[in-house]
């Protein structure tokens, strides 16, 4: 009870704290005190442009191109229109706007494809959950459509820009247990032709294919590769079966490309289960099981503890969000818990900053690039490069987008 009253009192007193601006200006970012800013809401970056549509709102999908020089965002209203806008992030100027309303007014994602002047827009049906996609040119013309499918992703395969549709259907035969049919189709975006073979893998409900003697544990490389456990071959001379092994199945060619010995069955099972929670991710960041920090994971099962600027218990561990960029860098955000244990011990709540971190390939230390403060604990949609941070403060009480998109230039 005493702790409760103290926490409430601290939050009220917090509004009366006056930040010493001059001290902030001369203190390095990593060492700045966690005090609520009086006016300053960004550290480590500078706001260079705010994009706000004349009508409607900034919708969820926005992204940088692979080079980081252009930013794509979608403006929309409740149900009648959606427009893709591309801006030059260095000149802060609009390059083009494309009306995609003929295909969708509620895109789930929009990405640069082909020459960078074509876009793959994906929408998802609110009731069925099925996805549809369209290749759209810079004039708004729909070149071709894809789906419906459970998932549709833009990728690169065999040196070509491609789109992959993935659907799993449950079938029930007159005799025997029900089956799952995994349908994977890889299409050349430029020509619309199938790349490799259109493939269906039939498994039981646990992902076991009797035909392939293969148990699918997860999908990677945008559904073009299935990873799992394959049964060992029969050794006639020894009159016994060789141990099972990890195998990679290349879906478009219908061939197994890699074989990995399983040294510890229980540990390997746990690893594949964890990787299965991150389908199609080359690497990903998780919170350590003991809540001691954040960990970088890759597809080989390797884990690496990541050093960050603050003790991890200063953050709300549920606030972790991450993104991988084209060069393999990982960006992630964490939100400071204003009443973390050290703040409680000092009897002084701190500012709930949203911290942006960058982890370069091969590094075990993430650099804190910027800190953002939003009132009322509002959330954000965001994307980042080594130079820019694009942020949309979320609507209060509305799941889609926000009123504006803010483009920040990150300090070096």
Give a description of the structure.
The structure is a single chain. By secondary structure, this protein is mostly beta strands. Helices cover 9% and strands 47% of the residues. It is globular and about 80 Å long. The chain starts with a helix and ends with a strand. The N terminus is likely disordered.
For the largest beta-sheet, the strand count, sense and barrel status come to: 5 strands, antiparallel
What is the average of the pLDDT values?
A: 89
Helix content: under 10%
Measured between the Cα atoms of the first and last residue, the distance is 46 Å
Low-pLDDT runs of 5+ residues are 1-36
Give the tally of β-strands: 31
Shape: globular
Q: How many individual helices?
A: 4
Q: What class do helices, strands and sheet pairing give?
A: mainly beta
Strand proportion: over 45%
Question: Order of strands in the sheet with the most strands?
Answer: 1-28-27-26-25
Radius of gyration: 25 Å
Task: List the SSEs and their pairings.
Layout: H1 2-14, H2 21-26, E1 42-43, E2 45-51, E3 57-64, E4 70-76, E5 82-88, E6 93-99, E7 107-113, E8 118-124, E9 131-137, E10 142-149, E11 151-157, E12 160-171, E13 179-188, E14 199-203, E15 208-209, E16 214-220, E17 225-230, E18 234-235, E19 240-241, E20 245-250, E21 255-261, H3 265-276, E22 283-287, E23 294-298, E24 303-306, E25 315-324, E26 330-336, H4 341-346, E27 354-359, E28 367-372, E29 380-384, E30 388-393, E31 405-410
Antiparallel strand pairs: 1-28, 2-31, 3-4, 4-5, 5-6, 7-8, 8-9, 9-10, 11-12, 12-13, 13-14, 15-16, 16-17, 17-20, 18-19, 20-21, 22-23, 23-24, 25-26, 26-27, 27-28, 29-30, 30-31
